[in-house]
Request: fold
Amino acid sequence: MTVPFLSLKDVTALHGAEINEAVSRVINSGWYLQGEENARFERDYADYIGTKHCIGCANGLDALIWIWRAYIELGVMQPGDEVILPANTYIATHLGITENGLIPVCVEPKEETLEIDEDKIEEILVKREEQRVKNGIENRIKAICIVHLYGRCAYTDKIGELCRKYNLKLVEDNAQAHGCVAQVRGKNGEVKTVRTGAIGDAAGHSFYPGKNLGALGDGGAVTTNDDALAAAVRALANYGSQKKYVFKYTGRNSRLDEIQAAVLDVKLKYLDEDNRHRQQVAAYYYDHIDNPLITLPKRLDDANNVYHLFPILVKSPSLQGGDGVGLRNRLHDYLAEHGVGTVIHYPIPPHMQECYKDAAWNRYLPSPLGEGAGERLPITEMLAECELSLPMSPCLMTAQKEYVVRLINEFK
Ligand SMILES: Cc1ncc(COP(=O)(O)O)c(C=O)c1O
Reply:
């Protein structure tokens, strides 16, 4: 048997007839950009997420770039301001920040959830406040960017409280968690159920083909309730123009095309159903994977996890840190030999990438000055050594998930 990590062909075929019809409709309409398909999808996606605005754009990285850039254009932030973000994420989260001359402040995840650790965020904010009061050092942290990594809700009430207390913007990177839900406690203690993408001040979404809501090419969106931010993002993604041939900002061409918008609007109708299938696959993995070399991340309620990916950690139970990549890579190769595709998310953390090795903000690398001179990110580095993502998709079949589990349980 073969179990591909993800077959996009099968994913598209799930709703193939409707997708084909939507694509043909756009082709035959003769209208390919900034038309009715974008308007419809933006309205439907904003309704689905629960925000006033949705602005389609070229991809998820651009969505993040436009959010930060819009805050700068609106005078809410300035280059040189700092943004707290998880150290363990896809590099696009960092790039959206650094592209705008903002400074990443990397925070470790909690090992059991793999999501950003709110206690460590608090430690940083408290320390900055102390430095401000004692030494008059300006605190330039202006925002927290949470990433709902792997499809798991990263929001916690404490993060919301910290944003209120320190007057920080909360930006969500929702590239991996379309359809996920959070229980959010408001200022007055009331609890609301809110979709990720509508929790913070703004959110970036990616519709890269492999995502839970994936296009047939690149696509992205920003969701927000902030009118001024929405207007700035819409202009920035359209050359900086709000009115034809009049340019308020130096923007770029970063539009979502009509074919992708039409495809996304079809797939949006089935997103919850597709996510339920992912949750059933995940439930099977949680209930049946049983191997001392494998640790599963803490199981969340299904509402709080749409299982974009199913990460496992491969390491000896006695070790606190990683084993080095040996054991994880051995499992990867063994599964591949048996026809099962797996992928590492991600083998090199952003702060260890060559592109950031000389970045002035990067104080997280092993320091030539010796132990303790740099701030280290041991959990993030351990995850890069031990993480492996199992096959996960809305079309994975029963026999396939059973086969994957049997192989994993037999791995020594
Ligand atoms: C967490 C995260 N942020 C941002 C992005 C960027 O999205 P895109 O590939 O559409 O630019 C991705 C996906 O690729 C992602 O996984």
About this structure: The domain at 271-410 is CATH 3.90.1150.10 (Aspartate Aminotransferase, domain 1). The mean pLDDT is 96. The chain has 13 helices and 14 strands.
